[in-house]
Design a protein that fits this description.
This is Nudix hydrolase domain-containing protein. By secondary structure, the protein is α+β, with helices and mostly antiparallel strands. It has 4 helices and 2 strands. The chain has helices spanning 16-28, 83-97, 103-108, 114-122; strands at residues 32-44, 54-64. Helix 2 (83-97) crosses helix 4 (114-122). The chain is globular, with a radius of gyration of 15 Å.
Length: 126
């Protein structure tokens, strides 16, 4: 198990932008005021759907003003993370991928999902 960030499938939501807005509302109870596309592309990332070994991603920056109201059905936890916290979690993921953190320790206290490590590198956040 890794620490995931907000994400979802477009399905019947019409567009990537609509899906992003709806996922933010669904998962953490925030109403996006402004949404900006930062990056997009295909990444290998498994999915529980049949044939789901990759996704086409669009990464957005979303501005919203309210406290998080986590959906108990959609999320296990939710919170705001500083850039320093994201960097620390990314370093933990790098150590795990390098075999420096045992599986049991990782399960108890994971870093971010490896696919997010890739995106954060491309965004030059880590």
């Amino acid at each position: 198990m890794d620490l995931p960030l907000l994400a979802g499938h477009v399905d019947n939501k019409g567009s990537f932008e609509n899906a992003a807005k709806e996922e933010v509302e669904e998962e953490v109870g925030l109403s996006p005021k402004d949404i900006k596309l930062l990056l997009e592309g295909r990444k290998d990332n498994s999915c529980r759907r049949e044939g789901g070994s990759w996704h086409y991603w669009k990464i957005y920056q979303v501005d919203a003003d309210r406290d998080i109201k986590r959906s108990e059905d959609e999320t296990k936890q939710a919170g705001w993370f500083s850039l320093d916290q994201i960097k620390s979690l990314a370093q933990k993921t790098e150590r795990y991928l390098a075999g420096e953190i045992p599986e049991e320790e990782w399960k108890q206290s994971p870093g971010i999902e490896p696919v997010w490590l890739e995106w954060f590198r491309e965004l030059e956040m880590v």
